[in-house]
Amino acid sequence: MACDTFAPDVNGASRFAERLAAGLTARGHDVHIVTPSVGHRNGGTFTEQIEGVPLTVHRIPAVRWKPHDWLRFVWPWRAKHYARQVLDAVPADVVHSQSHIVLGRALTRIARARGIPVVATNHVMAENIIDFTTLPPLLDKIFVKLAWDDARRTFRLSRAVTTPTRKAAEFLEATIDIHGVIAVSCGIDAGNYRPDLTPREQKRVLFVGRLTTEKHVNVVLQAVAKLAPEHDLTFDVVGGGDQLHNLQQLAAELGIDDRVTFHGRTSEEDLREFLSRASVFAIASIAELQSIATMEAMASGLPVVAADAVALPHLVRDGENGYLFEPGNADDLADKLELVLTASPEEYRRMQQASLDGVKIHDIERTLDTFEKLYRGEPLED
After folding, report:
1. What average pLDDT does range 171-181 have in this prediction?
2. pLDDT tens track for 37-47
3. Phi then psi for 307, rounded to 5 degrees?
4. Residue 180 in contact with residue 156, Cβ under 8 Å?
5. Residue 294 zone, left/alpha/beta (φ > 0; ψ -120 to 50; rest)
6. For the residues of 303-367, what is the DSSP string, one character each?
7. Do the strands 72-73 and 63-64 form a parallel or antiparallel pair, or are they unpaired?
8. What is the DSSP letter of 380?
9. 63 forms bridges with which residues in the sheet?
10. Which residue(s) pair with 182 in the sheet?
11. SS3 155
12. What is the mean pLDDT of residues 138-164?
């Protein structure tokens, strides 16, 4: 499994790869992860505990991308060399690329040359990339076009291409002119979460995710500022990122810094606690191909207020388990948060149950079943 981002990174692509690899290992498969090194200048092969399961992780020598707060990458002109080394050592039956950018690109090409089938998953949108290129806007457009052109070439070497939702599949097909992209949910184990269906004594808005510009946490802050005096609510922000200082400064400018707590990255246990005691989950992102954080909130029995963008409408059914708002519109977000926070106990409980019901289709076991079939080249049910 080729991963340009993996533990200890905290993001949707990394978390998906971790859960998929651990789940496959628990089913008896021998899973090897190929990913940039962390803290080991020369890389190496290690046994690491991921999701409570020992995994073999090949850490490839990598360097930090300075404009980003944690991103590391392998020099592209060395990636094929390392791909050959790994495939010389590991008798792989299939390669699963989690990224078409560096390691996934290299593993795909070497595997294809050796007759090893490749399954590819796309987690990338342009908004995930251009904030960190440090290029002028005009060159950003050229960079993104070249990246997608290369993605097309890489994906066409794969036996199957997947992405987390049908909307994301349509986006990918339209962007790089390929066909047959398969929508496979990232999946979660809903049993890991603790829904609390009792009335809330305190109104708590929660966001979980990376603090980067495409997440638009500033919009949630602006909405909270409109509601805070009236509802005596608090806003918990769980996650780290390059926008932390800017968001802290904005909270102070809005006069709500005493109501907003930036918790940084937390343990899984602490995350579950935040999810259990929150009143509503708010996400203003415009670049979600699925949003594992939103699924975790639903598995915790939370109503969700989300931007009506990309894949979020696949998770949030307007008026059922929460509400959708116009992307970037803090007034609309505030209005939708108000609907949840002022809902009657019966209405609030109905939204909670709708979230629990809606997340069932995203069970990780279904995801594992699907990828096992793709690895074996078996046909999928619709």
Report:
1. 89
2. 987 678 899 99
3. -65, 140
4. no
5. alpha
6. -EEEESSTTHHHH--BTTTEEEE-TT-HHHHHHHHHHHHT--HHHHHHHHHHHHHHTGGGBHHHH
7. antiparallel
8. P
9. 73
10. 162
11. helix
12. 86
